[in-house]
Amino acid sequence: MRSRDGRILTLLFASAFLVYIDRANLSVGATDIMRDLHLSPYRIGILLSAFFWTYALCQLFGVAGWVADRFNVCWVLAGGFTLWSAATAFTGMARGFAFIFGMRLLLGFGESVAYPCYSRILANYFPEHRRGFANATIEAGTKAGPALGALLGGLLMARFGWRPFFVVLGFGTLAWLIPWILWMPRGPGLSVRQDPRETPGIFEILRHRSAIFSALGLFCSNYFWFFLLTWIPAYLETERRFAKDKMAVFASLAFFAVAVSATFHGWLSDRLIARGGTPTRVRKSFAGLGLLFSTIILPMAVVRNENIAMALLLFTCWCYGMFGSNLWAITQTLAGPNAAGKWTSMQNGFGAFSGVAAPWFTGWVVQQTGQFYLAFVAAAAIALCGAAAFVVGIGPIEQVPFRLKDPRAAGVI
Question: Is the pTM value of this prediction over 0.70?
Fold first, then answer.
């Protein structure tokens, strides 16, 4: 890999890493915020899901994808980064439920451009046989972020409280903008405004079966992930009776397992394709098996032995990383460079509604039953549906034939 490519990929990893620290820090501080602001599990569940309303709607209705496809995608990413970092910082200054709710909505609005921007950059900048590792690197960032956030957040909040952590994190991460502005990728596919005749509309994308099932599959897989992300820290503290620092260690290890697994399996999938394996067979196998074995989280919920339960949790997260390594490589190949932003926006917008459903439903289950078991059952069952969507529902992993307004653009790849 060229040094410039490596530098760009490192910065994208860092942005994804920081995105998910900002996104997950509320779950790490959930029990402290509940005590400080006198909130019920149901209301904290609403706060955990609030981010996803604006995050999902901006993508589902094409706002994020339209911006990423029509303007300089690198500057769009920089603008979104500024907005979501500021929202994190101001959350630490909140004095009530309504203000935090507003900042979480703003956070979702800023972060809605992240994945459409990532997809358009990678689809234009990296060839098929390198996209598995490139996407896995970003996927690793989205999982290493919660890992380090859970570890440092748990330890630092226990010592200094949750407010200083949010303020310092939000304002401190703005430093990422300096190297990004200096080294961001440049080229006609990234910085020139695209001709609308060369990009398919959202209804043209939805005409294809693969687009529908990729969105359904992402909803199911995201439900599983957002259940882990938003409630595992609280589960370890309340049902497993872990102290805050002990919770921080094990939640961090679980999220790091996803990150390491995604990186390894992204590299492995690229190697298999480079040696002659078809993208369809390789990427579907990783996605399907990863989600299938993620259901091992269900026996983890009923095992009494603490060591066995934590080993099963780590193995579950390793399997989920196997799925995540190929998720967006599948999307980028199906969409092609010209439609990558819009397809990703639509798919991720629909999938993000699971971020509303998983925290809310889990909070409701815990409040009604006093335990997490039924929430684990739901997460495992939905993960199985996701495996079926990716393996059976999606067609061959190759660029779909779009009907474009300008027939001469049909050959544009």
Answer: yes
pLDDT in tens, 92-123: 898 889 999 999 999 999 999 998 899 888 87
409 is a domain residue: no
* CA–CA dist 268, 277 (Å, integer): 11
Residue 109 lies in a domain: yes
C-alpha span between 37 and 32 (Å, rounded):
9
Q: Is the dihedral of CA 93, 96, 97, 98 positive or negative?
A: negative
Q: Which long-range contacts (CB under 8 A, 24 or more apart) does 355-358 make?
A: 355/49, 355/51, 355/52, 355/55, 355/56, 355/222, 355/226, 355/230, 356/49, 356/52, 356/53, 356/56, 357/49, 357/223, 358/49, 358/222, 358/223, 358/224, 358/226, 358/227, 358/230, 358/231
CATH code of 200's domain: 1.20.1250.20
Looking at 252-373, which runs of residues are DSSP E strands?
Answer: none
Q: Rounded CA gap, 16 and 118, in Å?
A: 9
Return the SS3 of 295.
coil
- 3-class secondary-structure state, position 72: coil
Residue 413 lies in a domain: no
pLDDT mean over 26-53 = 83
Q: Give the tens place of pLDDT for each residue, 248-267.
A: 888 888 988 998 999 999 89
Q: Residue 125 carries which side chain, given as an amino acid letter? A: Y
Expressed as residue numbers, the domain containing 60 is 3-182+189-402
Residue 285 belongs to some domain of the structure: yes
- Give the sign of the dihedral formed by CA 73, CA 348, CA 232, CA 319: negative
194 DSSP assignment: P
The one-character DSSP state at 161 is -
Q: What's the domain count of the chain? A: 1
Check residues 332 and 392 and name the one with the higher pLDDT.
Answer: 392
User: What pLDDT does 412 receive?
Assistant: 37
Contacts of 203 (CB under 8 A, 6+ apart): none
Residue 161 burial (10 A CB sphere; 0-12, 13-18, 19+) = middle
Closest C-alpha to 200, from 58, 348, 412: 412
Provide the greatest CA pair distance for the chain: 64
